[in-house]
Amino acid sequence: MSAVSKPPPTILALFLLIFCSFKLTFCIGNSSSNIIACPEAEKQALLSFKQSFKDPSNLLSSWNNNGEVNCCKWKGVFCNNLTGHVIELHLQTLSGIINPSLLNIKYLKHLDLSQNHFEQTIPSFIGSLTSLEYLNLSDAGFYGKIPHNIGNLSNLHTLVLEDNSESLEVDSLEWLSGLSKLEHLNMNYVNLSKAANWAQVINNLPSLIELHLSSCNLNDNNDNIANNITNSLAILDLSSNNFQSLSITRWIFQLSNLNFLNLRFNYFQGPIPSITNTTCKLQYIDLIGNFFNSTIPEWLYTCKSLEYVSLGLNHLQGKISNAIANLTSLRSLDLSTNELSGKIPTEIANLCQMQRLHLGWNKLAGEISDSFGNMSNCFLGALEYLDLSYNQLSGHLTHQFGEFENLKATDLSSNSLSGVIPNNIGNLSSLEALYLDSNKLTGNLPESMGQLSNLKRFFISDNTLEGVVTETHFARLSNLTTLSASRNNLTLKLINPNWIPSFKLTSLQLRSWNLGSGSGILSWIETQKNNINELDLSNTGISGNVPSWFWNILVLNISHNQLHGKIPSINGPKNGFSSSIQFVYLSSNKFSGPLPRVGNNVIELDLSNNSFSGDMSHFLCDTANQTYQLQILHLGGNHLSGELPEDCLMKWPSLLMLNLGNNNLSGTIPNSIGFLADLRSFNLYGNKFSGHIPFSMRNCTHLMKIDLADNNLDGNIPTWMGSLSNLLFLILRSNKLSGEITSTICQLNSLRILDLSDNKFSGTIPKCINNFTALTTTKDLFDFQYSFYLDSFIESASITTKGSEFTYDTILRLVTNIDLSNNNLSGDIPKEITSLVELRSLNLSGNYFTGLIPDSIGNMRQLESLDFSRNSLSGEIPSSFTIMSSLSYLNLSCNNLTGKIPESTQLLGFNESSFIGNHLCGPPLTSNCKNDGKSPGPTHELGDQDREDGNSEIEWFYVFLSSGYAVGLSAFFTIWFLKKSWREAYYELLDNMWDKIYVYFYIRWTRLNIALGRN
């Protein structure tokens, strides 16, 4: 066969010329002067389409007949360069109704109506635009059900129906089955809870590559979960749904082309499923916020293409493997908020692509220099975010921590880091946030800190830093907005008293600094008054009057100083300031006068331990406001007097904590306390209240603390108190309460402190006391809800333990105590009390208890203080006392206990006074035990003189006793020798006795021989 000949060059040129004459645009490009005009029908369709819209941003201003007549040049309109047909519409910021004239644009392939405000259902006629390949209706204001006829758009490659307003829903997804060409599907935030067969439908989309079904109310509560899915899927987002079963994940981890997987914030439990692919193509995996409780799976370390890994907020345990060195492409690793332990492998600090490393909130330990003491140069150059907070890391920060080139934020807070802050920290020119708080750092604050020109947030609170801080430390910190440096031993000393800093702070916390009372200190802080919304100068030694602009700060803490004067009304914005004060802490100063009025915007108010006086009527009953938003009110430790107004508490419905303790208030507790339905903490201790505990308090069902100690209350413990299921602390000490402790109190199964001491209670301890389950089971003592918005306020309580009264605040949540001392209680100590194995202090002294100390007392191994003194207990001290290793205070004095004190190092360590007033013997008492282990009489302490007098009396006793025996025997034998009748009677008595003894033993000997068959 001959070769095909080529046409001559002239013919080729002629052909190209003719072609270009018809398709000029193809040859000369897309210059605006040569764009082919759109067809008139399509132009008119667009004009009709426009008429139904509101266009506040003038997007459609070019759509008219008066200007540009070619609709292909209108904004948001794109045409085919060869035919002029409209093929794309991009229309945003519109509102109104969508006109069906859109149907006249028959060649439309790309329709983007996202980010509009249509406020209508999705028009069903959209399902007739069969040429569409791309449809985006996301966040367009649509609501209601998605029309099924969208499934008629068989040419669709991309469908985006994402709805952040969560107003769209479906009753089924069967209509998706007609979209065989669909590659990209996004239905985030659409309610798919009724789409029971969603997985099967997705499985039948053969071309699907990208699937986004986040926050769709999906669950796995059906039996038709797909066992397999299209192998084309590469991007899968099922985050923030209601999945629980791992069965839904098994087919996911079998997808051979998957490179993006997001399953965050579901309810998956158990181990992370194994991946079965021979080659892992994953680049992105996000499983954050589930309940996976296994170790980090080994297959993860084999996916060398991984760039983003997020497994935070789970329950992962074990160690981070050295095999993490295999993940050389890794850019972001989030393993935070798990239970990982062990050392951080050094290999992490050699991953050259790493930009974000989050390992906070774990149990990682070891010297920080072992893990980050030899970081590679590429790691130092790439890392931007480092979070190692809330672990157990120790040791010193190495010089390398000042060599990061692009580090923007680092959080090393809440560890046990020690040593000094490296001097080269000022070299971190990109640093925006530095968290070093809650460690054990020492030494001075480096002056190089002042070179961090991009620094915005700086936290160094709760360390032991010391020395002087001057303006040099803030020289170039022009971007600083937050300085949190409380609880250090630092002193601010200004070289220039008129210094005006370059920064504009929104938050300044210098608690426990040495600021003195110099005017220069407060003058530079005043330069921040237009920006600052949080100021903590507590315990800084400042004195004098409070500047007026302080009362416009959102959060103000100036407690524990020497400030004085009267407090003006705290009513929010005034004097041109825009801030509205909401959190006020003025405790432990010298403020005086009447209580200030407060505005209804104030949320927390602490005026405790000052010298405020007068009654509370004007404070509680101010008619200027109907109700108040106040949640925490602490007025304890002042000189307030008078009675609480009966009806005014109704104005304070938001109160969570009310503390009026240690004042001079009197009268009865008002019944209006029952209107405080959200009250958590109620404190009236140290006043002169009388009468009964009001019945209306039963409405305060959220109460966690009741402290009415040291008043004159009478009556019984109300039976309704047993319904306060959240009650943690019940303190009724030192009142005139009486009656029996009924079994209803046993319903308080959350109780941690029960103090009924110094009252007139009678009867027995209810045996149901073992229903205090918070004291019977070992559990996390930090796991309860007693917390407040700011750490500026700390709840406190005073209890008697170890023979003294202690006030607990920061560790109150760790205290467990039962004190029933100094009442009229009687009967046995119930053995059920020994099941309270988490109890740390038990005091039953000063009652009328009888019977034995329960043998199982040794079960209470957490007990640190035990007082059974001044009762009528009997029997021996149980041997189980010897295993109570935590016991540091014991008082069993003044009972009727007997026998030997059990031998143990623990009991030997107590003073004799712990056992006196009993019938005990053995160490630590000086009285020795007889062979039977019992002491002859009550034990008591003897002085040296007593012991000498006692020994002397015993010696004379034996002298007189011996003389008496001698005289008596001499008289008997003299008369017996001289009187014959006595001698004859004596011998006759001996003969008779011998005859009887002989006959007795002879008879028994004879019977024994007969029984044994002897002759």
UniProtKB/TrEMBL annotation:
Broad class of where this protein is predominantly found: membrane
The keyword Cell membrane is annotated on this UniProt entry: yes
Domain Disease resistance R13L4/SHOC-2-like LRR: 101-339
Sequence ranges assigned to domain Leucine-rich repeat-containing N-terminal plant-type in this UniProt record: 41-80
Location in the cell: Cell membrane
InterPro entries in the cross-refs: Leu-rich_rpt, Leu-rich_rpt_typical-subtyp, LRR_dom_sf, LRR_N_plant-typ, LRR_R13L4/SHOC2-like, RLP23-like
Keywords, alphabetical: Cell membrane, Glycoprotein, Leucine-rich repeat, Membrane, Repeat, Signal, Transmembrane, Transmembrane helix
Membrane topology annotation: Single-pass type I membrane protein
Protein name in the entry: Leucine-rich repeat-containing N-terminal plant-type domain-containing protein
Origin superkingdom: Eukaryota
Family per record: Belongs to the RLP family.
Membrane spanning stretches: 956-978
Coiled coil location: none
Secretion signal, residue range per the UniProt entry: 1-27
Organism in which the protein naturally occurs: Rehmannia glutinosa
